[in-house]
Amino acid sequence: MIKLPFHINKMADLPPTFVPGFHDESEVRKMRYNKFGDTGLKVSHLSVGTGGFCLQYGDYTIELCKAMLHQAIKSGINYIDTAPWYGHGVAEEVLGKCLEGIPRQAYYIATKVGRYEADPKSMFDFSTEKTTWSIDTSLKKLGIDYIDIIQVHDIEFAPSLDIVLNETLPTLEEALIAGKAKYIGVTGYPVKCLYQCIKKSRVKIDTVLSYCRLSLLDNTFNQYRPYFQTRNLGIINAAANCMGLLTNGGPQPWHPASKEIKDVCKEAREYCKSKGVELAKLAVYYSFQRPGPHTHLVGMNNCDLLKANMDVLHNGLTDLEKDVLEHLQKKIFINLERGNWEGVELEKRRKILSQ
């Protein structure tokens, strides 16, 4: 057997995204990486969501976003998710500026097509023409030559699943052939809809993104996890804090959850505050421990949030935090009859469009 030099063996332990001279090697070696379905990619267990690279979740600055992103990538995070919907184009522009100075090899980037404007009547467009335009626009805003994962955004809002199957996905396949993207994914809130799309699609789907469905409030994702795993999909779990519900700061006014859910989360939030514990940390930790996902997408737009999420990834919870988490599960969240808001946004949209 031929023995490789020690430095070559040592480099083999690092992910393909490692760039000597740019990364903090000691931090990268601490990061957990997972095989991303059958894509051949190795993704960090924690990844960066850019919903906060705009005013959608409150204040932000480009400077803070850029500092966070550079530190995240240097510390071993290698997966970034964005979308034209976030800030209606703003987040992609901000992310493009934040990527300056980061080697392209150092990260995988995912963006989306299908969801765009604030106006409900022009919010969604899954047509071939709009999809093609969206991919080209994203490439320009991000300042990159290709997108690693191009995803159909919130497929449940398409006029019919047939449009996604027969128009949007084939258009994404053409983008792969043209070299504009490498892999195709679907995202959405109703996990059953994701399952149906993947099962029926004639276009190969490589990844699936589920959000708020593997959390302290709701574990619907687990019903479909075995199927996604048999298809060898790259599995992305997003929004462990349920878009702000499971944080000490609470959700934004637009959050679609019911009053019952918001009241229970408020009770949990107040209990955490009384113990000096951050609810978001408990929520992220809980999701990190669930089997199935290859990466957990967490929205971050400053270094304090990055530090907090890296801490829970590497160090877990303190004894006090574990006790608080147990109390929340056994005494507070157990009282929820329904921990999701599936159908609420769809019904609201139908009413608006019918007016």
From TrEMBL:
One of its GO terms (molecular function) is L-galactose dehydrogenase activity. One of its GO terms (cellular component) is cytosol. Residues 46-321 form the NADP-dependent oxidoreductase domain. InterPro entries: AKR (IPR020471), LGALDH-like (IPR044479), NAD(P)_OxRdtase_dom_sf (IPR036812), NADP_OxRdtase_dom (IPR023210). This is NADP-dependent oxidoreductase domain-containing protein. It comes from Ignelater luminosus. The lineage of its organism: Eukaryota, Metazoa, Ecdysozoa, Arthropoda, Hexapoda.
